[in-house]
Amino acid sequence: MNKFFSLLRVSMSEGMGIFRVYGKKQSRINKIGLPIVLAIMIMLSMAGYVDMMMEPLTEIGMEFVVLTLFVIMAALFILVEGIYKASGLLFNCRDDDLLLSLPVKRSTVLAIRIMKFYLFETMINAIVFVPAMIVYAMKVGVGASFYLVSLTALFILPILPIVIASLVGGLIAFSSARFKHKNLVQIILTTLVLLGVLFVSINIEDILQTLAQNAKSVNEIITKLYYPAGQYIQLVLDFKIMDYLMFVATNVGLFVLMLLMLGSVYYKINSRVKIVKTNTVSYEYNLKINQPLVALIKKEIGKFISSPVFLINAGFGLVLFVVVVVLACVNMNATLDMISKMSFEISEDTIINYMPACLFGLIFFTSMMTSITSSMISLERKSFNVLKSLPTNSMMIIMAKVLAAVLVMIPILLIGDIVMMVRFNFNIWQILMIFASSITMPLVAELVGILVNLKYPKMNAQDDTEVVKQSMSSMVAVFVGMGSSIVMLYIIYNAFRSGLSASEIVGAGLLFSVIALVLLVAYLWKRGTKDFNSINV
Amino acid sequence: MIRISNVTKKYGDKKALDKVSFEVGDGEIFAFIGHNGAGKTTLIKAIVGIHDFDEGEILINNKSIAKEPVACKKEMAYVPDNPELYENMRAIQFINFICDMYEVDLKRREKNIKKYAEMFEITKNLNDTIDSFSHGMKQKVALIAALAHDPKIIILDEPFVGLDPKAVFDMKELMHEMAKDGKTIFFSTHILDVAEKLCTKVAIIKKGKIVKVGNMKEIKGDKSLEKVFLELEK
Questions:
Q1: A257 and A306: one domain?
Q2: Hey, how many other C-beta atoms are within 10 angstroms of the C-beta on A189?
Q3: Which of A10, A60, A114, B104 could form an SS bridge with B109, CB 3.0 to 4.6 Å?
Q4: Would residue A85 count as lying in a domain?
């Protein structure tokens, strides 16, 4: 048992080294304090949201609806996050050789991985679920049974999404291993599954709306749709010891069943995932000469499309852009209906007139949330020395990364622009300004990303996941992206309220992005080479 | 020619290199030896322009690596001790990428890639992705990429680690051949037998300071290089 816990501790600390910044000794406060402060901030925001929702529900005595909503929200989040993470946390792990050479049973190694996966997802569950639980307890005045049931639920509710995520993740890993370009197949399969979950989530919105209006009956529907949520709510409303035992037994039983199922096939899948298909047919190759800058850009794009975690993480904003554009064009009536229901009191004609401003907001949001360059320096890891030894100046290497990122983004944005322009009849100035924004905004976002990554490189990461999902650089880029998007959308909305036309709003936004671009280029020119050269691996 | 004059490199208060000076001439095979952590890789990374240094000067064919890094790098090739290459690339893509960066013309890259791929018996693996390669195979790919642009100076950090016996033999023959052509070969190693038989000059580094440098015969006298090295380490 000691071996199990010491291996689990090592494994968890490796995965939790979120704020390890390369080259700097960090204090205990940085190591433990920052993630805790971040989690508390998110939980406080969640609590504020719950409190806001509770008010109308208290009037009709349906407070428990909040718990139902947050249980489902946590489950969906764990499901998406879990499918995405399963391939890295459960299969094809880098520490396979080390762990399997140690004098521990294979089943122990599997148990450690599942436990690590479970603990990560339980933390996510806690961040979403605990604020709802506390606000509910404060507002409603609950008995001891509520705390017992909710604390149990905290650990039990992640089980079903974890089981589904592990099975889907295993299936994706197993299926993609058959192919030579397994990374590409894995990217396609994961994207399809995530889009499927997204599609179902969008459709579930109708059910959730009905839930708010007719909570009691819909709670029964939810019980049928998502059994653990129904069980939990039932226990909160009417605690019976037999129901409680049933709640624990069914979920724990499910977990045991997953362990048995996965245990029997895990190493078969894992060894299959590790097989690298080699080329046994063609020894022929064609050499093509590229200019150094072109060669560097090709290298960066090659890295981007060959890393599932990098592509999915950075590319998801672009996928959402495409989804929103398609929704706006194909099913505009439903979209207008949805916007008008959001009580902005805006007529459908006004929305259509202001579509260029909406599109500018969407381009801004998509660009700022697609920060590809915020991981590009760190992803070099030890091969960074290869780059530094090349006979080219550092600025060319930096610019190649920025250009590679914008070359991925700009064509998608431009295609989306054209579709929207045709659908909503933009005038010539609006067309030109939107096109210009679709070029300047990705440049601004990627320059911010590269500057952040030069400031916070993480060159000692074990794998791409650690860089893309757990590095200071990618987190700072996400926060900068989210913060600036919220500010920009707020400004656009107020500009609209103050009577500015769509063209004026887009023009002002474009001017802002051009100024930001000039300032960022000037700053990069001043600092870029120095920061690049100061990174030592 | 590589000329190193009073190079000092500090990590905080600790001196990783302390006034290191020596010269490696054209046509020489120069071994750089020292125990783990003595400063070998730090100096090599300073020579090839990966790390800056605090004091002193490094000249590559009379050009300063600090002042003209791009011009210096064009004349050199560097193979690191642990070749961390771009794993997503096919071997041929990686070699071609390096050739692009050195702006090697098509005829020369075709000729050199064919020659070295055959020498290291890797031709049939050139279309495989690097992540499928063993350490030795990666080392071979790094060597081919380094040699494909006909560098005048070759810097190798532990070049024989991970190579199979045939590749080690071919590598040694190649080093002799290149030295005969007037090229400069500078490498670090822990394999003292190889250094003794292969090299014309040697430098021994201890705690960031050069404790012996000179012709192989002068350094070792009647003793073996291993014995000289171990005596200095005491």
A1: no
A2: 20
A3: B104
A4: yes
Q: Is the pLDDT of residue A270 over 80?
A: no
How close B27 comes to chain A (CA, Å)?
23
Q: Which residues contact A82 (CB under 8 A, 6 or more apart)?
A: A117, A121, A161, A162, A164, A165, A166, A169
Whether B41 has its CB under 8 Å from any CB of chain A: the answer is no
Residue B9 lies in a domain: yes
Torsion of CA A464, A469, A470, A472, to 10 degrees: 100
In a domain, B91, yes or no: no
* B38 belongs to a structural domain: yes
User: What is the tally of structural domains in chain B?
Assistant: 1
- For chain B, 234 residues long, the average pLDDT of each consecutive 10-residue run is 95 91 95 93 94 94 94 94 88 95 94 94 91 90 94 94 89 93 94 91 94 91 89 79
pLDDT grade for A76, boundaries at 50, 70 and 90: confident
Q: What angle do CA A467, A469, A474 make, to 5 degrees?
A: 70
Report the residue of A386, A395, A462 to disrupt the B interface, i.e. the one with the largest count of B CBs within 10 Å. A386
Give the closest residue to B109 by CA, choosing from B143, B145, B148: B148
CA distances from A71 to A125, A218, A222, B36 (A): 8, 14, 11, 55
Same domain, A200 and A324: no
Q: Judge whether A277 and A180 are in contact, CB under 8 Å.
A: yes
Indicate if the pLDDT at residue A21 is higher than 60: no
Q: Which domain holds residue A512?
A: 299-534
Mutate: best of A25, A184, A287, A463, partner B, most B CBs <10 A = A287
Closest residue of chain A to B134, computed from CA coordinates? A276
Which residue's structure tokens are 């250009």? A403
In a domain, A196, yes or no: yes
Whether the CB of B118 is below 8 Å from some CB of chain A: the reply is no
- With b for 16 or more beta-carbon neighbours within 10 A and e for fewer, the A212-232 pattern comes to eeebeebbeebbeebebbbbb
A456-486: per-residue pLDDT in tens?
Answer: 999 988 788 888 877 889 888 888 888 898 8
Residues A303 and A269 in one domain: no
Contacts of residue A437, Cβ cutoff 8 Å, sequence gap at least 6: A360, A363, A364, A506, A509, A510, A513
Model confidence band, residue A439 (pLDDT cutoffs 50, 70, 90): very high
| Integer angstrom CA distances of residue A534 from A537, B10, B206 | 10, 13, 26
Distance from CA of A185 to the nearest CA of B (A): 15
Among B113, B123, B132, beta carbon nearest to A278: B132
Model confidence pLDDT, tens digit, residues A352-408: 888 999 999 999 999 998 889 999 999 999 899 999 999 999 999 999 999 999 999
Please check the confidence at residue A419 and state whether its pLDDT lies above 80.
yes
Q: Kindly state the average pLDDT of the residues A140-157.
A: 90
State how far residue A320 is from chain B, nearest Cα, in angstroms. Answer: 27
Alpha helices in A141-181 (DSSP H): 144-156, 159-176
Spell out which residues of chain A touch residue B74, defining contact as CB-CB under 8 Å.
Answer: 391
> Is A356 within a domain?
yes
* φ, ψ at A461 (rounded to 5°): -65, 150
B215 touches A: beta carbon within 8 Å:
no
pLDDT of residue A123: 87
Q: Which of A177-181, A433-437, A438-442, B134-138 has the lowest mean pLDDT?
A: A177-181
Residue type, B233: E
Q: Is the distance from CB of A33 to CB of A137 less than 8 angstroms?
A: no
In this prediction, residue A22 has a pLDDT band, given cuts at 50, 70 and 90, of very low
pLDDT at residue A20 above 50? no
* Res A32: pLDDT: 64
Q: For residue A184, list chain B residues with Cβ-Cβ distance below 8 A.
A: none
Q: How many domains does chain A have?
A: 2
- Is position A138 within any domain? yes
